[in-house]
Hints:
The chain is built from 10 helices and 10 strands. It is of the alpha/beta class and 349 residues long. It folds into 2 domains: 2-119 and 316-333, ATPase, nucleotide binding domain (Nucleotidyltransferase, domain 5, 2-Layer Sandwich), CATH 3.30.420; 129-312, Nucleotidyltransferase, domain 5, CATH 3.30.420.40. A 5-stranded mixed beta sheet has the order 3-2-1-4-5, with helices on both faces. It has a 5-stranded mixed beta sheet with strand order 8-7-6-9-10. Strand 4 (75-81), helix 3 and strand 5 form a beta-alpha-beta unit. The longest helix has 30 residues, at 246-275. The radius of gyration is 21 Å and the shape is globular.
Amino acid sequence: MLVLGIESSCDETAASVVEDGRRVRSSVVSSQHEIHEEYGGVVPELASRAHAERITGVVQRAVSDAGCGLSDLDAIAVGHRPGLIGALLVGVSAAKALSWSLGVPLVGVDHVRAHLWAGLLETDLHLDDVYPALGLVVSGGHTAMFACASPAELSKLGGTIDDAVGEAYDKAAAILGLGHPGGPLVDALASSADADERAVDFPVSRMGKTSLDFSFSGLKTSLLYQVRGVPGPGGKFPHDKGELTEQRRRDLCASFQRAASRAIVLKLERALEAMGTKPMALLVGGGVSANSRIRRELTDLAERQGLGLVLPAMQYCVDNAAMIAGLGHHCLMQGEADDLTLRASPSMA
């Protein structure tokens, strides 16, 4: 079964053809980093316009790269929540048009849940060897843990009460005078051979002894004070990021990354205790799952706990349409489908 997936929830316009939920025949991602870089973050209106300009070409290329035609497609899957509403509407509208014109089923897919399918792409893992699982999504817009009975049956255990971890990375990069997106830049400096991860003992938020929620705002603010000093009268900072040496930047990145990864591992350990029944695997997705330190920490955690670890290949960590098509196929096999009344939504169900 060939499913065309469409993704437009934020600042990537993506389309992918996936066979039988796992085999990726094509995956095309058109990033908008060059549009949003000067603003230091995603501008929703600009993102929506770029999606509208690019969606047709991206879909055409995905179908062509898959070595098939539109008439060969068996279904259309689209990320319809959560995300920027204007951006989502572009993808949902395109998916509806294709479904109607081709006379094939349409299925709406939750973007966050799809991130947890990404690690299954291009694998032959049997679902019985993965589920039940403890799911972790770490991205620019989401940081949350889920008890996963199956790919489509998720119960949220905890999430961030302020910044998502990817957003904290982007803001850290801005504080340090780096570019956008910030995650890969912070990771690169933190991974330098001479970077001292213990140069600063940044705080790790625990949110109470049993809380499964995350908070990264304190970490971000602590970094700000390390870079610019504690603000004085009138909210003026005594220092400027331009005064930082390159060595100090590397040390701050490494220390920041250590604290962020510790916070994630701490909550995962608590979640494993709270779940009662030991899961089969730790299932991870989202752009921040590409971070080198976090991948190492998760590998160590899974080994200590005797869990399987399902991490996406690097190209499927970021927003992509292959994960949408893959989970869409699973939903269709479970008898789930939508019609042309499918709506875009900025929030999870």
